[in-house]
Design brief:
The chain folds into 2 domains: about 230 residues, 3-Layer(aba) Sandwich (Aspartate Aminotransferase, domain 2); about 130 residues, Aspartate Aminotransferase, domain 1 (Alpha-Beta Complex), CATH 3.90.1150.10. The two termini are about 30 Å apart. It contains 17 helices and 15 strands. The longest helix has 23 residues. It is of the alpha/beta class. The model has no long low-confidence stretch (mean pLDDT about 95). It has a 7-stranded mixed beta sheet, with helices on both faces. The protein has a 4-stranded antiparallel beta sheet with strand order 11-12-15-14. Helices cover about 45% and strands about 15% of the residues.
């Protein structure tokens, strides 16, 4: 048993240790531009890997189905209170294991199979759990989608109102996964009130901006707000549900447990509590505003270097880049940029004619680079580097231009060395 208690990971499982070391190297050596990813603090990592991994805690603080939950109660209670303080709401459930499960819990609590709800169309920047036909939300319920205008590539609230009046949904979702403009929560509230719908905001992408005052809050306009905790909020990979009206407390809590989940991941809840505490500090507000400033700098640089930004710009942390004029697919751009040590994801653009597996665009975000310490100058450089790689793909096809990609890698390395992550690990 000495090995069980004392062997570190490198000794106990060198293959997994090597993979983790390689992943740390990837995060250090490449610039992370995936809008849904970030770099958590060492404290968040430590909490996620803590001894709370060993603890079952079915139920809620003070009402558990297992003994020995005294300290689990402390952790979860702190996470709840910090979430409420951070987002200015009355109630919070911090147990959802993921963004998908937090949204499923809202559906389970408030809808019956076959009920009609509205969400942003996947092709316009919505999420799978907002009504995609391949997702449970689209299979078990009756989704009605709203999209963006073809000209402006922005949501037309008059069209949202028209669709809501026609279909009378029981639930309306605002929020998306690839929409770079501000959300008019007050306008959505007015529409929901007119048709008698519950209003849900999925602020997974913008929650860090909301916490830091860099984006309007969905409260008090929305009945329920869901969010992941690992994107712009910079915590562990997980989800939360927030609300103000006590009438939602029992159905939402019961939908999470016992409706969807058993024992909560107390180690992850501990990490959420740490992340909420970090976000409550004044410096987090400065960080959130830098994310937006950096996104605007990146978008401007890309446009100056010949790439079109969907909707003409960004108001948050992300943007979609339309590669159609360069005759480059999102799939090829993702691979070419990765070869140049710039990590992003392919993404469909509004009214895309290519499949979701190929796409005509890429999605970029600034939270992780901002965490590294990048400012507008660095992101303007990143925009130029992206444009160089895309031009190489445009001229040479999917294989790109090896000389350009080698040159970009060298400049990426300079930036990464100047702004290291996890020094000392």
């Amino acid at each position: 048993m000495d090995a069980f208690w004392n062997d570190d990971l490198a000794t106990a499982d060198p293959e997994i240790a090597a993979a983790i070391a390689s992943e740390l190297g990837r995060q250090r050596d490449k610039i992370e531009l995936i809008a849904s990813e970030n770099i958590a603090s060492r404290a968040v990592l430590e909490a996620t890997g803590s001894v709370f991994t060993n603890k079952y805690a079915e139920g809620y603080p003070g009402k558990r189905y297992y003994g020995g939950c005294d300290y689990a109660d402390v952790v979860e209670s702190l996470a709840i209170e910090r979430a409420k303080s951070l987002f200015g709401c009355n109630f919070a459930n911090v147990q959802p294991n993921s963004g998908s499960q937090m949204n499923q819990a809202v559906f389970l609590a408030l809808l019956e199979p076959g009920d009609t709800f509205m969400g942003l169309d996947l092709n316009s920047g919505g999420h799978l759990t907002h009504g995609s036909p391949v997702n449970m939300s689209g299979k078990w319920f009756n989704p009605v989608s709203y999209g963006v205008e073809q000209g402006s590539e922005r949501i037309d609230m008059e069209e949202v109102a028209r669709i809501a009046r026609e279909h009378r949904p029981k639930l309306i979702i605002c929020g998306g996964t690839a929409y770079s403009r501000l959300w008019d929560f007050a306008a959505f509230r007015a529409i929901a009130d007119e048709v008698g719908a519950i209003l849900l905001c999925d602020m997974s992408h913008i929650s860090g901006l909301v916490a830091g005052g860099a984006h309007p809050s969905p409260f008090p306009h929305c009945d329920i707000v869901t969010s992941t905790t690992h994107k712009s909020l910079r915590g562990p990979r997980s989800g939360i549900i927030l609300w103000n009206d006590e009438k939602f407390t029992k159905p939402l809590n019961m939908a999470v447990f016992p409706g969807l989940q058993g024992g909560p991941l107390v180690h992850v809840i501990a990490a959420k509590a740490v992340a909420f505490r970090e976000a409550l500090q004044p410096e987090f507000g400065a960080y959130a505003h830098r994310i937006v400033e950096n996104a605007r700098a990146l978008a401007a640089s890309l446009e100056e270097n010949g790439l079109r930004i969907v909707s003409g710009g960004t108001d948050n942390h992300s943007m979609l880049v339309d590669l159609t004029a360069k005759d480059v697919t999102g799939k090829d751009a993702e691979k070419g940029l990765d070869r140049a040590w710039l990590t992003c994801n392919k993404n469909g653009i509004p009214f895309d004619t290519r499949s979701p597996f190929v796409t005509s665009g890429i999605r970029l975000g600034t939270p992780a680079g901002t965490t590294r310490g990048f400012g507008p100058a660095e992101f303007r450089t990143v925009g130029k580097l992206i444009a160089e790689v895309v031009e190489g793909l445009s001229q040479n096809g999917p294989e790109g231009d090896a000389r350009i990609e080698e040159s970009v890698r060298a400049r990426v390395s300079e930036l990464c060395r100047a702004f290291p992550v996890y020094p000392g690990m």
